[in-house]
Design goal:
The radius of gyration is 34 Å and the shape is globular. The chain is about 30% helix and about 20% strand. The protein has about 800 residues and is α+β, with helices and mostly antiparallel strands.
């Protein structure tokens, strides 16, 4: 019996093989016949013939939709594939009957090929000639359809008529003979080959509607993201670029012994520091939490003996929506056992260096845009054509990255994400000029600040302009201060323009002694003042740095950006990498983020699993000065943008529990949320450290774009909505009932009529504390879990209605 069925399968395969044109064999037949492209076996001059039995021919006589083409004199073709022989055909048939396209490596002059793509606008030259470009995709050569005919009723005549009936932007399949085009490539990529296709047959696979108006500079709203993907080649190239970068990073990490392991997305609610999304379940009072990051899972992997782990992980956080934030994003997550923070920094630095030296992936053009490079020929062509691509690859310092402490970054640049392109002679670092009310500027201090304990800091901006032009620049800047600067109330920046024609060179408001202080300031980072120099002074509260930036730091960055925008400062398109380390282990609560919910008044700067940097920092924890302790954490910054961060983890369960209970003063219920992690650490977990690279931000920086939404296929808006699909959507009453999210009024009414008012029992105190983090952070589920059936039997009678079978059984 087995031999009989095997014989039938082999016979059917042999019958089908001669009739397949330019297609790969179905997968189920690959074990019987070696998979080979039939383009390699069928001569090019016979590609448009179909002298063998067609697999669809047995159905053509009985299908009224498949009518033969009008009979007439044939110029070249005596027989063609049945797909092109049919005069009319349904969309359903079109979806399955079109021939496979010819691979791009087989594109040669005088060769017959099949193509598939989107038709562009048609250009008619008289009644017997038509030109039309076809979008075949980035990996194919450029093809222009050339349709001509000489004799009525010929296949060329029929194809010419069919071409004129197809609306632009419709998907088509066509067949013809390639000719070398004399026209140069019209695209930005001058390395592409260009062919003319002498049309023999063409058919539309679908129709593009006429009510959608497509113009060259059309701006598609988020609702029509699919149209933006179709008609914005730059967006498609960015997505291809993103894919190539992901492949290259994967290759580099796997060559270093990292193992790609997927971790669950459905986790539990734990107070790691950010608000999270909850996913309700049909189990009353229970919900999943979407992972903020795979942090706890990857630490458990280290305890489980996995030496090196990585994955491109989806992360979910209910954060304020900004240009560089999304409720869901992708990060390259990695962890190493028996490693320190220095080991992780060295590995990541080498991977980044390899990535940016991978010239086959991308190149940056003279216009500042990034382009994808696919082949060695394109690489060599770009090198030989510097006029088209003035910068092959990126200028970067990835091979020799700068390292800087958090305190130094805040002192010199006023931010923990310094942009190293902002430097002298255009912009100086921050210099402390004087401190306190007893300074030389005591008469000027009331105009600067109302603070009691403060220091006065300053920066110098040199635009290379006259004093009058500099004053005009600063007037426009101060009149249009960005709202995102969020300057401290009670502190006003003071602006001076150096002008040798004015008394005290423009510093008369500071008095003679104060002006002399500014005059005497001179160093490698603060060059001696010349006409047109702008000095900005600002007061800052003395004490330890807190947060990610200072007022003057934000002003400094905004001033430099305004100088570049006006053209006074040349734009620097290089990529400057920087490692910032030695962050404070804890940060005072500001009320914006939930933190860990402890009673100490501060929360972990990165997350509560970060290890103290030295033994001295551990002593600070035990001696009651935790805000002075530093963590062994580090951030990777590029051009003022943090693209990743990591730390050495606490691998000893006793120290982890001490920080949670005694330092952060978390409740026992919240500490119990981390019982799984504490148990893993207790089981002899090795020392380990890790890192998470913001993959969306990395690609955004490479393209020098303002928002990560420009490198995502389907991003969310500033409100966290996907307008195209309409998410998030409202919860229906049935879903509320099924997932116990909230009690709908109609169910409450039924409950009262069935058994009177039912009061839910109060949850025990420990359970209430456990559920609070989820209640504070949820954006999906309700704040209070629904009562269990045991707690509210009357309501259960209403919510759990008997089935039809149960009713029938009762009646019976």
């Amino acid at each position: 019996m087995v031999r009989f069925f095997s014989h039938l399968v082999r016979q059917n395969v042999r019958r089908c093989v001669p009739s397949i044109r330019g297609q790969y064999l179905p997968r189920q037949y690959q074990p019987i016949l070696h998979m080979r492209s039939l383009h390699d076996e069928v001569p090019s001059e016979d590609l448009d013939r179909d002298s063998h039995e067609d697999p669809y021919a047995q159905h053509s006589n009985n299908n009224p939709l498949l009518k033969e083409a009008p009979q007439g004199p044939l110029v070249e073709d005596t027989d063609i594939p049945i797909f092109f022989r049919t005069k009319t055909q349904s969309s359903f048939d079109n979806a399955f009957r079109f021939p496979a396209p010819t691979p791009p490596m087989h594109y040669e002059p005088d060769k017959v090929v099949y193509i598939q793509g989107f038709l562009r606008k048609r250009k008619d030259v008289g009644s017997r000639m038509t030109f039309c470009d076809v979008d075949l995709g980035r990996t194919y050569p450029e093809v222009q359809i050339v349709s001509t005919w000489e004799e009525e009723g010929s296949y060329q005549h029929v194809a010419h008529q069919d071409l004129k009936t197809i609306s632009p932007h419709s998907p088509i399949t066509a067949m013809g003979t390639l000719k070398k085009s004399e026209k140069t490539s019209g695209s930005e990529d001058s390395t592409k080959q260009r062919f003319d296709l002498k049309l023999r047959h063409i058919k539309a696979l679908n129709t593009f509607p006429k009510d959608i108006i497509v113009t060259k500079d059309a701006l598609w709203p988020p609702k029509f993201r699919h149209l933006q993907l179709r008609f914005d080649p730059d967006l498609r190239d960015r997505l291809r670029f993103r894919s190539s970068i992901q492949f290259e990073l994967t290759k580099q990490l796997m060559s270093r012994g990292f193992v790609n392991i997927e971790t669950p997305l459905l986790f539990k609610s734990t107070p790691e520091g950010a608000r999270e999304f909850l996913v309700p379940t049909r189990r009353p009072g229970y919900a999943y939490a979407l992972t903020q990051s795979p942090q706890q899972y990857k630490q458990i992997l280290m305890a489980g003996g996995i030496e090196k782990y990585f994955q491109f992980a989806k992360c979910f956080r209910d954060e304020d929506h900004r240009a560089d934030r999304q409720p869901e994003f992708t990060q390259l997550d990695l962890e190493m056992s028996f490693a320190s923070g220095t080991d992780v920094i060295n590995n990541v630095s080498k991977v980044i260096e390899k990535l940016f030296n991978h010239n086959k992936c991308f190149a940056k053009g003279a216009d500042g845009k990034s382009y994808i490079v696919y082949s060695e020929n394109e690489v060599e062509s770009l090198k030989e054509n510097p006029a088209s691509f003035s910068r092959f690859g990126f200028q970067h310092n990835a091979g020799n990255m700068v390292h800087m402490k958090y305190k130094d970054a805040m002192d010199q640049y006023g931010t923990d994400k310094p942009d190293l392109r902002i430097k002298t002679p255009w912009m100086s670092p921050i210099h402390q000029i004087t401190s306190g009310h007893g300074s030389l500027f005591h008469e000027f201090v009331p105009q600067l600040t109302t603070l009691r304990n403060f220091s006065i800091e300053g920066v110098k901006l040199r635009l290379g302009q006259t004093p009058d032009a500099a004053r005009k620049f600063m007037k426009n800047f101060m009149n249009n201060l960005p709202s995102t600067l969020n300057l401290t109330p009670g502190c006003t920046p003071a602006v001076f323009v150096y002008d040798s024609k004015l008394p005290l060179n423009g510093f008369s408001d500071l008095g003679e002694e104060g002006a002399s202080v500014i005059e005497r300031m001179s160093s490698s980072t603060w060059p001696k003042c010349v006409d047109g120099d702008i000095i900005v002074m600002h007061a800052r509260k003395t004490g330890r740095h807190v947060g990610g930036s200072t007022d003057l730091g934000r002003l400094r960055t905004a001033l430099y950006a305004a100088g570049v925008k006006t053209g006074f400062i040349p734009a620097d398109r290089s990529l400057q990498f920087l490692w910032v380390h030695s962050f404070p282990l804890f940060t005072p609560d500001d009320g914006k983020d939930p933190g860990q919910g402890g009673a100490a008044g501060f929360s972990a700067t990165h997350h509560p699993f970060t290890a103290p940097q030295t033994a001295k920092d551990v002593d600070l924890l035990t001696k009651g000065n935790p805000l002075a302790a530093r963590g062994d954490s580090y951030d990777l910054v590029v051009n003022g943008i943090e693209i990743g961060g990591g730390s050495r983890r606490i691998h000893v369960a006793e120290l982890q529990q001490y920080i949670m209970k005694d330092v952060l003063q978390m409740s026992n219920a919240r500490i119990a949320d981390f019982a799984h992690l504490l148990e893993a650490l207790r089981a002899g977990c090795p020392p380990h450290a890790g890192f998470a690279l913001g993959f969306d931000r990395l690609v955004t920086v490479m393209f020098d774009l303002p928002s990560i939404r420009d490198v995502m296929a389907f991003p969310k808006t500033n409100k966290g909505e996907d307008v195209m699909v309409g998410s998030p959507s409202k919860v229906t009453p049935e879903q509320e009932q099924l997932y116990h999210i909230a009690q709908h009024p109609r169910f409450k009414k039924k409950s009262q009529s069935a058994g009177g008012k039912a009061e839910a029992k109060q949850q025990p105190e420990a359970e209430t504390e456990t559920s609070n983090p989820a209640a504070d952070s949820t954006t999906v589920a309700s704040q209070e879990p629904a009562p269990t059936p045991e707690e509210n039997p009357e309501e259960t009678k209403i919510l759990e209605q008997p089935t039809e079978e149960e009713e029938a059984a009762k009646v019976k």
